[in-house]
Amino acid sequence: MKRYIELFGIPNVWTLLIACFPARVAYGMVGLSIFFKAEQSTGSVAFAGIAIGLNAAAGSFTAGIRGSIMDKYGQTWPLRVMVPTYAGLAFALNAVESKPWMLILAFVMGLSAPPINLSVRPLWKIVVPEDFLRTAYAMDTAIMSAAGVVGPVVATSLALSSNPSLPLNIVGGLMLLGGGALALTKVSRSWVPEKKAADYQPLWRHKPLQLLMIEGCFLGFGWGVFDVAVPAFTTIEKVPHLTAWIFTSMGIANILGGLLAGLVSKRTSSLRAMRRTYGIWFFASIPMALSYPGWSMIIAAALLGLLGGAIMVFYWEVMEAIRPKGSPTAMMGWLWTVEGTLMSIGSAAGGVISEHLSPTIALCITTACIGIGYIILAIGKSRLVAADRIPSDEEDLEAMKDNSPTTS
């Protein structure tokens, strides 16, 4: 606890967390908002899964490009363009009833998605000293998870209320509020992109990133299936209100897992911590695959979220350790291009599998994908060796010196 108290005593920490929170809630809402909009308008779970899949696919297609733009030009003007565009498209999607237009607007909405999380992550390096990065990443992950808790609850409650047209309008409003606030913060406006190293090579030729992309293909597909399988399962079983409870338990546990990861000793390398947690995560996903909408699924989701929250902290640390200099946003963006594309395919597949086969089969696919992801990281761990080391005290001091001019 003392560590987190010290973190919040650092200037700009509160500002950064509060500014981006509304936009993160919007992202927590958007998937279910589109799902319920499409399902209520057409009566088809499969169509709703395709709508989510198109939205996610579009967002992933341009994630690497948007990240590269920010690494070159900074964050201010890209956010000021994409934020209002995204909000306007959310309002438009909410207003249409035509199947083709719903799919078109969901797709274009994804293309314009502001990279809020990709923008926030590199800012922590200029806000906190190097020895606080794990704690900062943990808190950032916890806030992201908190938004993931609030978002599904709000989206589900509004979609099942007497005014089911509200969720997408709320998504647009929150994106305007949070995305606009982030773009106007001093930290974001003063962020200067890193200069590329002399031996910089295209990211797609970077072997550590190649490994994470392969792992991301399976994890993305499995998670895409999961995101649709849960609301599809509850809808098919005529208990759609449980969707919010399941995602809430998962999100709260995700927050706790992230905070616990932030307290892990700095003497443990990020790669070692990630691999160990990843293995446990696979076994924790099995009860979810075998559960039924009710208390068993709520508890299983919490277990899955607890380990997932911890992994996210270590995963960000690994990416930071292995990325080439000059690619703090693009590295994450291109990884998301691959992972998000497979996630969108998984979302579409999850709706079809859930409707025509069984949601249980869909959840089993998620477990299998997590297991394959762990095997890939175990086989290719030599490519991630840069993340399997403990920074020396001298390196920490040097990093703190490098950060100091920017934070003043």
Automatic annotation (TrEMBL):
Pfam families for the chain? MFS_1
Which GO MF terms are attached to this record? transmembrane transporter activity
InterPro entries membership: MFS, MFS_trans_sf
Q: Where would one find coiled-coil regions in this protein?
A: none
Instruction: Alphabetically list the UniProt keywords.
Output: Membrane, Transmembrane, Transmembrane helix
Q: Determine the domain of life of the protein's source.
A: Bacteria
Kindly indicate whether the keyword Transferase belongs to this entry: no
Where is the chain membrane-spanning? 12-36, 42-65, 77-95, 101-120, 141-160, 166-188, 209-230, 242-264, 276-292, 298-318, 330-353, 359-379
- Which protein is depicted? Major facilitator superfamily protein
Organism the protein comes from: Candidatus Planktophila sulfonica
